[in-house]
Model the fold of this input.
Amino acid sequence: MATLSYNEILPKTVIVYNGEPYEVLSSHIFRMQMRKPVNQTKLRHLVSGKVVEISFHQNENAEEAEVGKMQAKYLYTNRGESWFCEDGKPSNRFSFPEDAIHDKIQWLAPNASVEVMTYEDKPMTIKIPVKVELEVKEAPPNVKGDTATGGNKPVTLSTGAVVNVPMFINAGDIVRINTDEGIYTERVSKA
Done:
């Protein structure tokens, strides 16, 4: 395991803090008058998703977590648990609490491929593609005169997620979504 000094604790790294794995979301190194520099970080717990703010001082360091990766398939969500299985090993099933990964699973159709981050061989969290293509399940009808303003309307996708799309999108269309921001990017195919 690599030891990171306070100024190497940067976004996208995963560190062990209080014996638990955290992903570094942001870091800001600054120096107060006459004081030693401090790295102010935001860390997200890999399992619970809880975000904490921690300051690392010049004399402090952190261990880089040895995080593994596994390809898996999303199966379903039921009773607050989202279930997955390892690619090529359907018997290796595992779940995460739905509330810990809701912002990600809302963009996943059953059998979608995901990357699972593991720590000490245990599944910790999932990484999903930045762009996904999903079918529009329900779209409100266009109201005459709306298209001139180039307005948007909310539609429901096959996964149950709701996004704002341009007026010309209809039920049955396939749309591409940016999952980082939860926004419509383009229509892939027309119903």
In short: The chain has one helix and 16 strands.
